[in-house]
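Entry 12.
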Amino acid sequence: MSIQIPQFVPQEVCLKCEGCCRFKEQRSPWRPKVTEREASVLEKKGLSLLEKIFDGNVVDSDSYIKAINLKGGCQCSFFDSNSNTCRVYVDRPFECQFYPFLLEKREEAFLISVHLSCPHIQETEHNESFQLFVKELKELFSQPETHSFLFTHPELAGDYSEFADEIMPLFSLPIKSI
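Predicted 3D structure (tokens):
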């Protein structure tokens, strides 16, 4: 089971941006983590795309999508830098669907935050559309199906504590209620 996350950042904005899917180093904590089911789907897709690079293994032992060195930096192994698109967009993992929103685990709660480095968030964080989207996320994360997903996949919660100045907390979900 996975949950469908509505997309806040319009596709045309994403296609013009040069931030997501690119990392400073291959083992960047910003690489998406995946569930076993997502990894299985990506491995099947990755086999034909990247088997010469990774021998068919596009997810590392910590459940992160592997990054490849390219053009003086690193990028997601599924990112096509020529078209600025994702090769597995239809099957992209939860974290990719959710970004620029983030799932963190803090003590006894899941924390839903937003990455302030996203140019679209910088433009909209004080707008009504942003507030309405956060309300929609709260409703989504209050549903039993979402609780079940989070309880089953707590490994998707990242540790972004070293990036606290880039992140704005939005709301939390006590783990006990999940």
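Annotation: The chain has a mean pLDDT of 86. Helices lie at 11-16, 36-54, 94-98, 119-124, 128-141, 144-152.
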